[in-house]
UniProtKB/TrEMBL annotation:
HTH lacI-type domain residues: 17-71
Entry annotated with the keyword Nuclease: no
Keyword vocabulary terms for this entry: DNA-binding, Transcription, Transcription regulation
Keyword Transcription regulation: yes
Entry superkingdom: Bacteria
Cross-referenced InterPro entries: HTH_LacI (IPR000843), LacI/GalR-like_sensor (IPR046335), Lambda_DNA-bd_dom_sf (IPR010982), Peripla_BP_I (IPR028082)
Protein name: LacI family transcriptional regulator
GO molecular function, one term: DNA-binding transcription factor activity
Native organism taxonomy: Bacteria, Pseudomonadati, Bacteroidota, Flavobacteriia, Flavobacteriales
Naturally occurring in which organism (per UniProt): Leeuwenhoekiella polynyae
Length: 353
């Protein structure tokens, strides 16, 4: 954080105009003033001209120490994602990169492959790469967070998205997974489903545990029995794991008349397995997925799903990260931004009640 001190000498020398003064005068943020003074491409020509004219008018002289430090800035943000081949994460990255580019920042992307050890190694690399901010989605294996503590000591802001540390005050961009899963399950119930299965994500991961709890809460609200045999646990919600769990449901004497899947890959698996066995979708078994992957709009029948706002999540993560980097005079201990999801109803759940 920079502190711009105005020194008052005994002979009443006029205080020097600071960035903060310019910001107040023009009703702009200090970071916008700073970028305009440096002819930053992300600031409009009109704003740049306005700021520079006002700086000259007020006799603004850049602090040489602060100026020297700014020149050493890398304008680089590091991103740690579990897997870039998952559509959700690729869309998040796109949101991050689009917003960062507009603000004149570059991004460097690393994948943990959902491995804690690899995630730890990446944090060491980033600590030596002079990045100014780091955006992270935790690996499935991550249950301790010591490897992130050095970023705080280095003054490098961290922003987590989707999978965030539990029990810690951190900056994060999330959705309400419990509420979203409740909505998805409730939709199946309103369509007449009474025996609803769930293909669940890894329960060591908070978001998938929340989706499981949301599913159970909807059953409880509508007084439907919870049957553990109708829950299929997976490690990483892969298409192959979806086939295994859907095939297990198919072997039961009483078939589920609804299936809520914790992602769209497993929803596709369930749809294909049941249709291949001659089960009519959605009339005999309705299916709802999660995440609104492109495949949900391609496969027939189209799959009802939850839009988890992945692109917006990335853009918000970049926005918060850059705000933490640039607004040195703003003190932010921790902030959680929760994005509202939406249920997208398609043919896979439109059964006749």
């Amino acid at each position: 954080m920079y502190i711009y001190a105005n020194v008052c000498y005994s002979f009443m020398k006029k205080s020097r105009t600071t960035l903060k003064d310019l910001a107040k005068e023009l009703n702009l943020s200090a970071s916008t003033i700073s970028r305009a003074l440096g002819n930053h491409p992300g600031i409009s020509e009109t704003t740049t001209k306005l700021v520079q004219q006002k700086a000259e008018e007020l006799g603004f002289i850049p602090n040489s120490i602060a100026s020297s430090f700014r020149k050493k800035k890398t304008r680089s943000i590091g991103i740690i994602v579990p897997r870039i081949d998952i559509y959700f994460h690729s869309l998040v990255i796109s949101g991050i990169e689009d917003f960062a580019y507009k603000e004149g920042y570059n991004v460097t992307i690393f994948q943990s492959k959902d491995l804690l050890k690899r995630e730890q190694e990446i944090t060491k690399i980033l600590q030596n790469k002079m990045v100014e901010g780091v955006i992270v989605c935790l690996s499935i294996e991550t249950d301790k967070y010591d490897h992130f503590k050095k970023f705080k000591r280095l003054g490098i802001p961290l922003v987590f998205y989707d999978r965030v540390p539990t029990g810690l005050d951190v900056n994060s961009i999330v959705i309400n997974d419990f509420e979203s899963a409740f909505t998805a399950t409730e939709h199946l119930i309103t369509k007449g489903c009474k025996r609803i299965a769930h293909i669940a994500g890894n329960q060591s991961t908070a978001i998938f545990k929340s989706r499981f709890e949301g599913y159970k809460a909807a059953l409880k609200k509508y007084k439907l029995n919870f049957d553990a045999n109708l829950v299929g646990q997976t490690h990483n919600l892969s298409y192959e794991e979806g086939i295994i769990q859907a095939s297990r449901f198919l072997k039961q004497t009483d078939l589920p008349d609804g299936i809520f899947c914790a992602n769209d890959y497993t929803a596709v698996s369930a749809l294909q397995v049941f249709m291949k066995a001659g089960v009519k979708i959605p009339d005999e078994t309705a299916i709802v997925g999660f995440s609104n992957y492109p495949i949900s709009r391609v496969i027939e029948p189209h799959i009802t799903t939850i839009n988890d706002r992945a692109y917006e999540m990335g853009a918000e993560a970049a926005k918060l990260s850059i705000r933490l980097i640039e607004d040195e005079e703003e003190s932010i201990k921790s902030e959680t931004i929760s994005l509202k999801t939406e249920l997208i109803v398609r043919e896979s759940s439109l059964k006749n009640c």
